[in-house]
Structures are given as C-alpha cells and as structure tokens.
Write a structure and sequence with these properties.
Elements: E1 6-10, H1 14-26, E2 33-38, E3 42-44, H2 48-53, E4 63-65, E5 75-78, E6 81-85, E7 90-93, E8 97-99, E9 102-105, E10 110-111, H3 119-122, E11 124-125, H4 132-141, E12 145-151, H5 161-175, E13 182-187, H6 198-211, E14 214-217, E15 222-226, E16 229-232, E17 236-238, E18 241-245, E19 248-249, H7 252-256, E20 266-267, E21 279-281, E22 286-287, H8 300-318, E23 330-336, E24 342-348, E25 356-359, H9 364-381
Parallel strand pairs: 1-2, 1-9, 2-5, 9-21, 11-18, 12-13, 12-18, 13-14, 20-22
Antiparallel strand pairs: 3-4, 6-7, 7-8, 10-19, 15-16, 16-17, 23-24, 24-25
Helix pairs in contact: 1-8
C-alpha cells in the first residue's frame, strides 16, 4: 500500500486542469499522486463553440485530449462519478472505488433544456456542441424571418457568450447580404444585459447590440416554447430559429452527496472549501457570493483562478505549511464584436468594497489575445 498522498479531481475542465497542472509543476509523482476523472476525454475552451456555430472552426480542431495527461504524470480515468463519499474519503465511478486524501470537485454545471417545456422539440441548445453544426446549417439557409436568442435561466456560464452569439449571427447574415431581411431578438430574464458586470458595462453592451440592430428584450421569463412561438410570463413572441441557453444545475451526484441543495450549486467561500476540510470545489459547480445580489460569474477564467488557489493550498498542506491563500476574484471575459475585433470585460470581485468591472475598447489585438488564450490553455495543460 503506497502512502503517497492522492489528489483526486472530478472534472477535466478549466478548474480541474489548472489545479492538476499547478500541483504537478510544484511536486513530482513521488510526492503526490494526481488523478482526474471525467466522463468525456476532451477539453475545449467554451467560446470555441461560437466559432463552430459560425462555421470558422470544426469541433475536432477545437479540442485537446485528456488522454495526454499521463505524459505529465497525471492519471486520467474516463468514467462517470456516481457517488462522492466525503466521510470515508472515496468516490465511486461506474467501474471502481477510488480513495483520496484531497478531493477537488470541478464538475461544471449541467444544462437542463428539458426543464423548459417544448424547448427540445422547437429550439436549439446553443451550449451543446452536438447541435452546433445543425445551427450553422440553419443560419446559412435562412433568407428572411426572425432569429431569437433566449437566456432561459440564471445564472448561466460564460455570461457574455450569448451576446457574442448574437453579434456573430449578425455578422454571418451581413456577409450573406440578407441582414435586412432577418430580425434578431435577444431575450433575457434579467433587467439589464449583464447583471454580473453592473449597470455601466451592461449599458455599453446594450449600445453595442443595438448598434447592430439587435433588439434586447429585458425581464422576459420563459414559461414554455411552442412551434415558432416563445411563451413568456407576460408576453408572446414569434421566431423562425431559436438559439437557447437552457437553465443550469449541478450534476445529480452533487445533490445525492448533500453538497448542494437542488437546483443550486455548492456554496463556497474564497478558500473554495466545502464543509469537509480536505474537499474543495471550484468553477461552475459552485456559488461564491460577493454580496447580497452578486456571485462570482460562471466562467472558465474564474474556475482556473480558483483551481490554482486550491492547488497552492493543497501544496502548502502537503509541505506541512499552514499558509492559506484566498481567491482574488480577478478575471476577464472576451466579447467578440462580429467585426474582427473583441473587447475584454475586466472584473475584480473582491479588491474594493464592491465589485468593479470595465469594458475595454474593441480591437483586433484583443481578438488575437482571445485566440492566444485558447492556444495557451490547450498547450500548457495537455
């Protein structure tokens, strides 16, 4: 029986990969064993989905393989987690029990289109990579009519992405010379475009979508979807193509393990600890509140930051150093304009008394940074 400490990481997304690499870059395999478990064997930077949607990318060209991890002395198991047992320090997959000394839960959020009656039959899930080619086909065939982009639940991951989608759809239609024949409507249950970014940045984003003749409908809470018709609590609207961002919840195993209350997420503080001393949670599967009305957004950059903090704190414990650091809440999300430029929403959640956000100018350089960000993550983590 080996007495090398074992760090088990559930989920090979931003948080899990950042944590695993941070630990391995500091401690070799004689000091700590690292295992990532995920039911899929690939990683994608989420915003690449929009490039598959507009036809400038393929799925195959946008992913990295988790099967590369063993080259870094990080074990990878492709399997589904069916039980987390915090009291006895083991997780159960469909095929085995795996014990841990430290556990990092970075399983992400689960999309539940079935929570909205009629959505699956009448619309597309914009965040499902399996539907992107068909969305692209439909967008390339439409000659006239109405395209609806609808946020169907809050919070959702990658908050600027639906707005980017609307701008990239606008760009596709312009290039085909049919933009004037197609109406683009954006519906959100929120009163402003991006509540997590605050009123000032939200107004800038509203001005941006309005400048491309995209109509933003605020405070629209979806009830159900019919054929070519959206039924909201107080309104009804027609559409020809529906691109939906479905509600998000935690994976079932999180509720079964009593780590979160349905339909919510694992509550954490800035140390990313759960009620169990050796179990941490990061990224979209968590809720980290900043104040009464705001939580850290669900975005890869924040999952990465949290993953690195947890890794550093585990390294400290393994080296018998009690020093602990907190997540700083800093990050940024790209916002692509559809005109070969991008801006960055810069976020600082905790430095000042209240969160600060800023939208940078939209430039070609920022679009290059967006491409570089993706390349860097794929090359340094896998």
């Amino acid at each position: 029986m080996s007495n090398i400490p074992h760090v088990v990481i559930l989920g090979g997304g931003f948080g899990g990969l950042a944590a695993a690499n941070e630990i391995r870059n500091s401690l070799n395999s004689s000091k700590v064993k690292i295992t990532i478990i995920d039911k899929k064997d690939w990683f994608m930077v989420g915003y690449a989905k929009l490039w598959i949607m507009n036809g400038t990318r393929t799925f195959e060209n946008s992913i990295g393989s988790l099967n590369e991890l063993p080259k870094k002395q990080i074990n990878f198991i492709k399997d589904e987690i069916i039980e987390i047992n915090p009291k006895n320090n083991f997780v159960k997959t469909k095929s085995e029990n795996i014990s841990f000394d430290f556990l990092i839960i970075s399983m992400g959020a689960v999309l539940v289109p079935e929570k909205i009656p009629g959505l699956t039959e009448n619309g597309f899930n914009l965040y499902d990579h399996n539907q992107l080619d068909e969305i692209n086909e439909k967008l390339n065939k439409i000659e006239s009519g109405k395209i609806a982009i609808v946020i169907m639940g809050m919070p959702y991951k990658c908050p600027p992405a639906p707005f980017e989608a609307s701008l990239l759809v606008d760009s596709m239609l312009r290039k085909r010379g049919i933009r004037d024949s197609v109406q683009i409507d954006f519906y959100s249950p929120a009163p402003i475009t991006l509540p997590a970014a605050g009123p000032e940045v939200s107004k800038q984003i509203l001005d941006l979508v309005n400048s491309e003749k995209i109509t933003f409908h605020n405070s629209q809470k979806i009830k159900h979807v019919e054929s070519k018709k959206l039924i909201f609590e107080n309104d009804e609207y027609d559409f020809d193509i529906l691109l939906a961002i479905p509600p998000h919840i935690s994976p079932k195993v999180i509720y079964d393990s009593n780590l979160a209350i349905k339909p919510g997420f694992i509550p954490i503080d800035r140390d990313c600890k759960t009620p169990f001393e050796n179990i941490f949670a990061v990224g979209d599967v968590t809720s980290l509140t900043v104040n009464d009305t705001m939580a850290v957004p669900k975005a890869g950059i924040f999952a990465e930051g949290e993953g690195i903090i947890v890794a550093k704190n585990i390294i400290s414990k393994l080296e018998s150093n009690e020093k602990s650091i907190l997540f700083d809440g800093k990050g940024g999300c790209f916002l692509e304009s559809g005109r070969d430029t991008a801006s960055i929403i810069e976020v600082d959640m905790f430095t000042n008394q209240k969160p600060t956000t800023k939208l940078t100018e939209s430039t070609k350089d920022n679009l290059s940074k967006k491409l570089d960000f993706e390349k860097e993550r794929l090359s340094k983590w896998l």
